[in-house]
Amino acid sequence: MPGINYKQGAIVGSIVALIACRSTLNSNDVEMLHRKPGANESTLVVQGSMPANTALSVSAEYESSTCRETELIFPYGEITNPTFHEKNRYAWVRHNIAASSSEQPFNVALLSGEPGKCQWHMTSLIADWSYTDVGHAKKPLSWRNKFIDRSNSEEARDLRYTPLIYALQVHEDNNAKTTEEIRLASSDNNNSEWFQADEVEDYIDLNPTTQRSITLKPTLDLNHIVAITSHFKTGTQWGEKYYDETIRYPDGTTFFFDRNPDAQVPAGALRMQQNRALFSPDRPESQINTLIKSADPSAKRQLAEIYELGHAVEQDRPKAHALYETAAKGGDIPAMQWMKKQAGYAQQPKQVRYWQHKLAMADDIQAKFDDARDDLCEQKNQVHAEEVIASLAANGTQRMKNFALFWQNINQPENAQDKRAWFEDCRR
User: Fold this and answer.
1) What backbone torsions phi and psi does residue 357 show, to the nearest 5 degrees?
2) pLDDT tens for residues 204-253?
């Protein structure tokens, strides 16, 4: 051949011979994965509902260590030493479901594995969602659920996902280069790339011995738009970088983050205490302005929780206590339970009894029982207290049943000494 010497021709001939001798996989071995699972075969069912104008692609990846494949490699880049390297074989099964103008159910049954010649087993499962109504964006908006096999490492379980998918209007300024686009975020997203719903992962045994299901029912709310503005600038000194970010929620709640703790917070914004936190529409942190304006006791308690934890705003325990008290006086049961618990920690028995009585009046079952027990201890309203205890214990907790039985026994004449000892003990 012109331009190729004898040695080069020999090398090319060897490579051609290697390729010709390469093992191949019978297409039937892969086609077996596409068939409908039988009644007694291990099956993974992906089911749920698709939001309107949303397409779905369900893809399963399988691996075989029995049916291997080879790839041509050149160790250390030497063309004179070509060889084939054996590796496990992979195959894919994909089901595409078109978008509809209204919400629609879906059900995809996949073989968890194929007990044929190749002994396939599923290694990952991906659900790719694509919102196709371009009236909300210049391009389709997408998000992903990914499930990775962790066979035999956990109890068999079905999974259920009901995430809230919402929109982010992202404006980025990177050294004077600006970009603006709509992205999606998910309330199920725990990834470090918090501002995107690109890939929400979980681990599950994808190769069960029986049928297992994954239920996906996302809710798409593109009317809830979170505006994110970030600025990044590289300084003149080596390693000098500046970064700040503002997150504004639909009700006007605004958080500001800056790596410089002395940076001035814009008017009306709250300093973000957790780096790059994003709160979904179902989280109270995303609606602090609404909670502040609300007279609802539960809103005051949610505000109290935010200030108590201090992961969204600066921790302020005195303010949290005042808000809990306001909520409790307004009749919020969780707030009353919090006030009672705090009184117990502070060893304030009168306050404990006060909030316990308030809870009982609000029909809190445990508080009603404890109130009746305390009445017995103080030897007042005894007949009523005994009636309450007997009534609640009938369908109550084991602790309630145990005390009702104890009270029945201790009132026997032969247990008079034990009864006196109990009165002395409960009044301490």
Assistant:
1) -65, -40
2) 888 877 788 999 999 988 888 999 998 888 776 776 778 888 999 999 99
Task: Transcribe 250-319 into DSSP letters.
Answer: TTS-EEEEESSTTSPPPTT-EE-SSTT----TTSGGGGHHHHHH---HHHHHHHHHHHHH-SSS---HHH
Please identify, among 200, 234, 268, the residue that sits at the C-terminal boundary of a domain: 234
Question: Where among 193, 219, 234 does a domain terminate?
Answer: 234
pLDDT at 26: 58
User: For residue 280, is pLDDT > 90?
Assistant: no
Q: Which residue has the higher pLDDT, 4 or 39?
A: 39
CB 289 within 8 A of CB 252: yes
Percent share of the chain, pLDDT over 90: 35
Tell me whether residue 79 is in a domain.
yes
99 versus 65: the higher-pLDDT residue is 99
Q: Are 81 and 11 in contact (CB under 8 A)?
A: no
Q: Are 34 and 162 in a shared domain?
A: yes
Q: Give pLDDT, residue 427.
A: 77
What's the CA dihedral at 329, 332, 338, 339 to 10 degrees? 10
Same domain, 223 and 333: no
Do 348 and 213 lie in a common domain?
no
Query: Quick one: tokens of 224?
Result: 């809830």
Please give the pLDDT value at position 12: 52
pLDDT of residue 206: 85
Average pLDDT over residues 153-165: 75
Which of 376, 373, 333 is closest to 355 using CA atoms?
Answer: 333
In a domain, 263, yes or no: no
- 189 falls within a domain: yes
Strands 212-216 and 159-161: parallel
Q: CB–CB of 111/33 below 8 Å? A: yes
Beta bridge partners of 70: 86
376: left (phi over 0), alpha (psi -120 to 50) or beta: alpha
Neighbours of 386 (CB within 10 A): 17
Domain count, the chain: 2
In-domain check, residue 35: yes
Domain with 129, as residue range(s), is: 6-234
- Whether 36 and 147 map to the same domain: the answer is yes
